[in-house]
Amino acid sequence: MDVVEHGKPRKAAVAAWVGSALEYYDFFIYGTAAALVFGKIFFPSSDPAAGTLLALATFGVGYVARPIGAFILGHVGDRFGRKKVLVFTVLLMGLSTFLVGCLPTYGQVGVLAPVLLVVLRLLQGLSAAGEQAGANSMSLEHAPEHRRSYYTSWTLSGTQAGQILATAVFLPVAAMPTAALQSWGWRLPFWASALVVVAAFVIRRKLEETPVFEREVAGKEQAKLPVAVLFRDHWADVLRVVFAAVIAAVSTIFTVYALSYAVNSAGLARTPMLWVGVLANVVALAAIPLWAMLADRVGRKPVFIGGSLGCAVLIFAYLGAISAGNYVLVFVVGILMFGVVYSATNAVWPAFYGEMFPARVRLSGMAIGTQIGFAIAGFTPTIAAAIAGDKSANWVGVAIFTAGLCLVNVIAVLTGRDNFRVPTADLGRKDSTGDRVPMTSPGGATA
């Protein structure tokens, strides 16, 4: 059993939280802008629905780059260290996001504008591919064995904070007159990323490498090609993570499609809908660590599955409330679904996925598995917009589609083993018979 130095778990968790908050601020301001503005300034069309569909597609493009980035950054993280990945990702995300704010519009340079937008979105996706897997690996490997879910959940709390920042920044921007919003107002949140990225870089530069990784370096146990080892010995777990990770569709439907549907189809005001996102994420900041602490006591699977099933039910209520134009129900159900119930899944998956793999391929396994699953989730707003078309009543089809993805997640999680009592040093290992090592309690007794 590893001896965890006092203070290091919290330091690693804080670094993961801050970096993820700033990283996902950058990532989600793009989603908000795609829902509210980009369809009009980068994809002008006589058909507004077509412009919105194309704008949402560019949001999904960032997820296409994620699997590619996962292979590259997963290799770097498992071969050369978690810290290098975390420093690189925050710099790449900050630069690409700032440049989005500098882009000319379609009216200024024609088709070159959406081309450049897609290129920068691809760079954002490459960065995000290594961010969560790197931060989760760092937090898990620094954490006390009986509190791994709690400490790894800080990464997801950071992403919620990033969404709060992204949405909050757009509140005053969205309230601007339409002409000002579409000409220069939308650029301000992107330019602001130049300030926040500096803070994340400084924090991560001071972070120490994990003892698990340092021990592998000292013992020369690193795999020269981690991906080859991963797919040779752990391919089933990679597939399991892929299908479990589609639960992220709840996030993309909530933050991108539902916002676009509410404003552009149901006729709801921009500002209240943005506030739903802000308040739901504020609630999530409190809910995530509580769910994570429960998962450290009862296991990852009960919490994860409960959250997924709850989202499958509540997505009908949320889209139905939007369709009815009932602001009270929109706020109540939106906060309940995204702030409370979806937080159960976010609290658990960083530990649940990370505990499937040994340290030598952990970052690669988490990055590749999650990013392929997230790539599927990234295109759900586009698929949902295609399902709905120009008929508001088609929200039922979108809800059925989202609920179906939640059930895919449940099946994937059910097939996995709950390793919450396995010592950190033994995670992902196999004994001489090829079976996983026996589960043990934090005190070392066989469970």
TrEMBL record:
It comes from the Bacteria. It holds the Pfam family Sugar_tr. The chain crosses the membrane at residues 21-43, 49-73, 85-106, 186-203, 241-262, 274-295, 302-321, 327-353, 365-389, 395-414. Keywords: Cell membrane, Membrane, Transmembrane, Transmembrane helix, Transport. It is found in: Cell membrane. Its main location: membrane. Residues 425-447 are annotated as: Disordered. The keyword Ion transport does not apply. Residues 12-421 form the Major facilitator superfamily (MFS) profile domain. It is a multi-pass membrane protein. This is MFS transporter. It comes from Amycolatopsis deserti.
